[in-house]
Give the backbone structure.
Amino acid sequence: MQAQDQTFWTRDTVTGDWGGARTRLSNNGIDWSLTYTGEVFGNLSGGIETGAAYEDLISLEVDTDLEKLMGWKGGTAHVSLYQIDDGGRNAADLVGSISDPSNIDARPTFRLFTLWVQQQLGDTGSFRVGQLAADDEFLISDTAAALINGTFGWANIVAANLPGGGPGYPLATPGARLELDPSDESSGRPCSAAIRPETVHPMRTRKPADPHGTTFSFTGGALFMSEIQYRPGASAKDDGAQSAYRLGGWYHTADFADLELGNGNKGQRVSLAVDPSDPIEHQGNWGLYGVVDQVVWQNGASNITLFWRGSVVPADRNLLSWYMDGGFGITAPFRERPDDVLTFGVAYSNISPDASALDLATRRIAGSSYPIRNGETAFELSYTAQITPWWTLQPDLQYIVHPGGNVPDPDDPSHVIENSVLVGLRTTVAF
């Protein structure tokens, strides 16, 4: 359908083509999008407290074809800016879970997210440098991306273990990425990124070290990631869903404190429950992961895809020692709604046995029923309804077992945080 033939309800954006101005900009290499995402979540029971929270995100993204704009053959550029607001509290504040119920939760601020330039290397790959976000390309499942809980995007195994939560939303970092594509079906992505020295994730603190994303720090260690990807049949002219298999790993160069043991005043190793002042430092950190998106049924616009992700890391220096999630996505679950998606996911985050051992030592010393952390499980069922090409509504239901991994309730330390039931509704509008 031509832009001039589209009505308010059938065009791609609320504001349309601006009398042809958007098309002219695109023809000259500049494409931009402005998207509003707003949601309300209600914690019906359990968690830290019952109640409701509202949060929203306004994102501006500009993609530039530098060959069209200035004759730079194979060159592209990208920038994204965020305005984040949570009305004073977010869903994570209500629940107290490791798995953040919302993947847009963050400190209220206006911030730069990503900023990079890329050079296409013929048909063999590309090289990208600038402020990068690892969750744009690494450790992601195409199917799970339709869910709202943050762990189904930048998984808990990295968000809870890396300094500052790692280079995932809303914290991108300076770095470089090389992608090699030996065939249409397979690709490899080595990436390195500097990590700024934030030890608390921005979504968990009101005073981050880099509130606007413009520090561009190269201190605090570096993160190296690598991933190989295989998409069978990707070379075929098929607009339907495709299966994908990913295998990757990462290494971080910083020092990481031991979760259970420290150095005593005589040089001996002691439990941190006895003397938490001098933990043992481990050089470096690493992780391995795999991701599968498998199409199991397809008929025209309708398809059913299963997803699975798993990851392991060293237990002595990471809060989570292993992680697994899985589920399914159904595209066009109803014949008359070809653009809707129904998605279900379950994620398990296993607390490191070293962290559990510290809890056991604390219990022995305190002589009380101090809880022993074990793990957290998050269930989510979500339906994305495409109301118009520019507007979606997404009702969402989540159930989180042992929020925080079985930790004391901050309002009543004699009890652990109870299982949480949340309902939410998200709306997304493209301007």
Observations:
- Residues 3-430 form a domain with the Porin fold (CATH 2.40.160.180).
- Helices lie at 21-27, 66-70, 91-95, 156-159, 353-366.
- The longest strand covers residues 279-299.
- The chain has one domain: 3-430.
